[in-house]
Automatic annotation (TrEMBL):
Family: Belongs to the TatC family.
PANTHER family named in the record: SEC-INDEPENDENT PROTEIN TRANSLOCASE PROTEIN TATC, SEC-INDEPENDENT PROTEIN TRANSLOCASE PROTEIN TATC, CHLOROPLASTIC-RELATED
Ranges annotated as spanning the membrane: 21-43, 63-85, 106-125, 164-186, 198-215, 221-241
Superkingdom of the organism of origin: Eukaryota
Single GO term (MF): proton motive force dependent protein transmembrane transporter activity
Any one biological process term the GO annotation gives: protein transport by the Tat complex
The protein's name: SecY-independent transporter protein
Gene source species: Helicosporidium sp. subsp. Simulium jonesii
Subcellular location: Membrane
Gene encoding the protein: tatC
Length: 248
């Protein structure tokens, strides 16, 4: 059996090479998004446009800078699989085979579920949010004709910022169970420890709900209850994983 000694300079060269690949992937992805900017803008604004509403721009440079912002954000999001892949290839040799197999299964399931979650948010949740906010329009019917007394036509900058905020916030909250399942799966944290600190986590949930939800009691209650249900699901799944580990 032949053993190879890897020095710090070898690790540095590998890290530099992998980050060059990551930067190249990010730049090429952002340029591709910029080339197909109309298609991506249409896909992002589709839930709002289909409600017979329009977007406006009040500054001559507003559209350009928002398209540039969208290209950078989407370029980073689309580059995430490559970013995770290169980091995984760098840390993979330092893991045991059993740990590597567990993490391979976990990350594969994680990426599949995050794609499903994104499609559910795009096709169901975000259209409902857009429909809810556009319901505050005021229409007047006179002589069988409809005129809008109050029309909702947001700026493209506010719409893009708000839509990206919604997508990232919901996806972030949905990753909470995966985070705890990962800790249970790798025996870093136990469901008993989590269940014994319910009051502390409930306080954290209240703070997160107050910070991320709109300033009304209904939204805060809905987000608080949803996060607490996720916490109980995490504890339940943790006990199942612990039982399987004891059986093995």
């Amino acid at each position: 059996m032949t053993f190879y000694t890897i020095t710090i300079s070898d690790h540095y060269k590998e890290i530099r090479l992998r980050y060059l690949y990551i930067c190249y992937t990010f730049l090429s992805t952002a340029i591709t998004v910029y080339y197909y900017q109309l298609e991506f803008i249409y896909l992002l604004t589709k839930p709002f446009i289909y409600l017979n509403n329009n977007l406006i721009a009040t500054d001559i440079t507003e559209v350009f800078f928002n398209i540039l912002k969208l290209c950078l954000i989407l370029g980073f999001i689309f580059s995430l699989p490559i970013i995770f892949y290169h980091h995984w290839c760098f840390f993979h040799p330092s893991l045991y085979k059993t740990e590597a197999k567990k993490l391979n299964k976990y990350f594969f399931l994680f990426f599949i579920l995050i794609i499903i979650e994104f499609l559910l948010i795009y096709n169901y949740l975000f259209p409902i949010i857009c429909q809810y906010f556009t319901s505050y329009e005021i229409n007047i019917f006179s002589n069988l004709e409809k005129t809008k007394l109050l029309e909702i036509s947001p700026k493209i900058s506010s719409y893009l910022s708000y839509s990206i905020y919604i997508y990232l916030s919901v996806l972030l909250f949905l990753q909470i169970p995966y985070f705890f399942i990962f800790l249970f799966y790798m025996n870093i944290y136990s469901p008993i420890q989590l269940s014994s600190k319910r009051s502390l986590f409930f306080l954290i949930i209240l703070c997160l709900s107050a910070f991320f939800s709109p300033p009304d009691i209904i939204s805060q209650l809905f987000l608080t209850i949803s996060l607490y249900i996720l916490l109980e699901i995490c504890i339940y799944i943790g006990y199942i994983i612990e039982m399987k580990n004891h059986i093995k």
